[in-house]
Amino acid sequence: MKKNRAPVQILGFVILALALSLSLFSCSFVTDLTHEFSFSFSKPLTPNQFALQQGIENFYYEEVDSAFFSGNVETFSDLYLPTISRPMDWNHIHAWAQKFFKEHPSSHFVVKNIFIDQMSYVRAVVRVRYEVLTAGGEGSFSGYERDVLVHQKNGWFIASWEKLNPNAKVKGDSKSSYGLSLPFDSAETPAARGQ
Predict the structure, then answer these.
(1) N or C: which terminus of the chain carries fewer CB neighbours within 10 A?
(2) How far is it, in rounded angstroms, from Cα 33 to Cα 1?
């Protein structure tokens, strides 16, 4: 008596197809729940994501550089949330700015690389390599740090930062100007926040 294996093989293909479709569905479902996605250079940013990325970059290229160039202690201190406590509080930042700008009334903040690790409409985690160039070079310095930015009605502010080892290779760190993995929360749109 010869057994018919066709139903078993069909059942195997059905189970395989079901498992594959469930795994694809679950990946997309998890992505929808966390609103997280990865950028690749083959997938263009949406207009909202591009505008958000530009706002974060402009914070460094325009606002931070303007604060250093103006040599204005208040302008510099206002880049930070009044509630900042890590690695120093706002009063210590203000005191540092007073001393620095007294010695170097005009300098430039030069961005070498920006790596956006996380981004939403209200919060971003950014790694930035930079140089601060003073007139004559005395007092110039460079650094590599991770900043946590928060967005409020009138712009981005630094909520905390930490110095990073400038020689350490960090995942996503390359000669490219941007990190590739950017968590993005579409539920945090300005409309969803009532703005």
Answers:
(1) N
(2) 53
pTM above 0.85, yes or no: no
Cβ contacts of residue 126 below 8 Å, gap of 6+?
Answer: 56, 60, 114, 115, 116, 117, 146, 147, 149
41 and 94 assigned to the same domain: yes
Q: In this structure, are 68 and 10 located in the same domain?
A: no
Q: What CATH number has the domain bearing residue 59?
A: 3.10.450.50
At 129-181, the pLDDT tens digits run: 999 999 989 999 999 999 999 999 889 999 999 999 988 765 555 433 333 33
Q: With contact defined as beta carbons under 8 Å apart, do 134 and 105 qualify?
A: no
> Which pLDDT value is given to residue 188?
39
